[in-house]
Each structure stands twice: as C-alpha cells, then as structure tokens.
Amino acid sequence: MQAKRMEREMQTYFTQLNTTEQKSVIQMLKTFLQKKSKEPNISIEDYNKDIDEAMAEIARGAAVSHEEVLKMAKSW
C-alpha cells in the first residue's frame, strides 16, 4: 500500500519540475543506483580485519601523512 502512495507522490512532484530539473533528478537516481551496484559486499568480520591491518600499518609507520599526499598530488 505504501509503495503505491510513494509512486503517486513521486509522480506528483516530478511533473511539477521543469525539463532541466527532471533531467537532474533522473541523473541523481542513476547515480544512486550505479553506486549501489558498485558497493562491495563485505562482511563485518572482513571489514574489521581490514581496519586492524590498516591500524597495524600506521603503528609500523607505513603510512603517508595528509601533508605528504598533498605534496605528491602537486606533481601529478
């Protein structure tokens, strides 16, 4: 029931937009869907493992500071 109401609401709002605004909304929706399809499926365990590994790298001094990255970026 709620889906039908939302469809009607979307139609009501969308038709009030001019063509440029409609194109913008469509592009935004496409962007959301593309991002969603590219999101990795990762378990919480793997996510936490990745964070632990990154923290270990930082502790070993195997990290690049923000300032160093900015300097590197200037040469790109």
Write the layout of secondary structure elements.
Layout: H1 2-15, H2 19-38, H3 44-59, H4 66-74
Structural overview:
The protein has 76 residues and is an all-alpha fold. 78% of the residues lie in helices and 0% in strands. The longest helix is centred in the middle third of the chain and has 20 residues, at 19-38. The radius of gyration is 22 Å and the shape is elongated. The termini are far apart.
Could you describe the largest sheet, including whether it forms a barrel?
none
User: Unreliable stretches, pLDDT < 50, 5 or more residues?
Assistant: none
Mean pLDDT: 88
Radius of gyration: 22 Å
Number of domain units: 1
Can you give keywords for this protein?
76 residues, mainly alpha
Task: Describe the structure in brief.
With 76 residues, this protein is mostly helical. It has helices at residues 2-15, 19-38, 44-59, 66-74.
